[in-house]
Amino acid sequence: MAKTAIVGADPENGSKMGAAFSGVTGLWQRSRDFLSDVRSEMRKVVTPARKEVQATTTVVLVTVFVFAAYFAVVDFIFSRGLTAVISKLTGQQ
Questions:
Q1: What is the spatial distance between Cα 48 and Cα 51, in angstroms, rounded to a whole number?
Q2: Angle at the Cα of 87 (from 82 to 92), degrees rounded to 5?
Q3: How far is it, in rounded angstroms, from Cα 79 to Cα 85?
Q4: Under a CB-based contact definition with an 8 Å cutoff, are residues 8 and 2 in contact?
Q5: CB within 8 Å of 7: residues ≥ 6 apart
Q6: What is the pLDDT of residue 70?
Q7: Cα 26 to chain center, whole Å?
Q8: CA atoms of 38 and 36, how far apart (whole Å)
Q9: Alpha helices in the chain (DSSP H)
Q10: pLDDT of residue 5 exceeding 60
Q11: Residue 32: phi, psi to the nearest 5?
């Protein structure tokens, strides 16, 4: 976990002297801590196998086509219904 530095205070003697310098060094230390944390987290990343990628891609594609078909049917029903209602209200056939 990254440590936070207090900007504006000198950690050496507790005064506000050298606030600009301690802010720069605090930034440097926070950046190093952040990059160290990123490196340790990246070591935990596991790349999926080819079969896993193919399986999840297939699931995503099938799901997309199922939802597309569902929304096409719902859109068709609503458009037919709305057209019928509008034609009834305006008296057109």
A1: 8
A2: 165
A3: 10
A4: no
A5: 19, 22, 23, 26
A6: 98
A7: 29
A8: 5
A9: 19-42, 50-90
A10: no
A11: -65, -45
Can you tell me the distance from the alpha carbon of 4 to that of 11, in angstroms, rounded to the nearest whole number? 12
Q: What percent of the chain has pLDDT over 90?
A: 63
Residue matched to tokens 């440097």:
28
Q: Return the residue matching tokens 């008296």.
A: 91
CA distance 46 to 49: 9
Q: Give the whole-angstrom CA distance, residue 80 versus residue 69.
A: 17
List pLDDT tens digits, range 41-84. 999 999 999 999 999 999 999 999 999 999 999 999 999 999 99
Q: Tokens 């939802």 — which residue?
A: 67
The encoded tokens of residue 28 equal 């440097």
Tokens of 5: 């530095």
The backbone torsions φ and ψ at residue 16, rounded to the nearest 5 degrees and listed phi first, read -95, 10
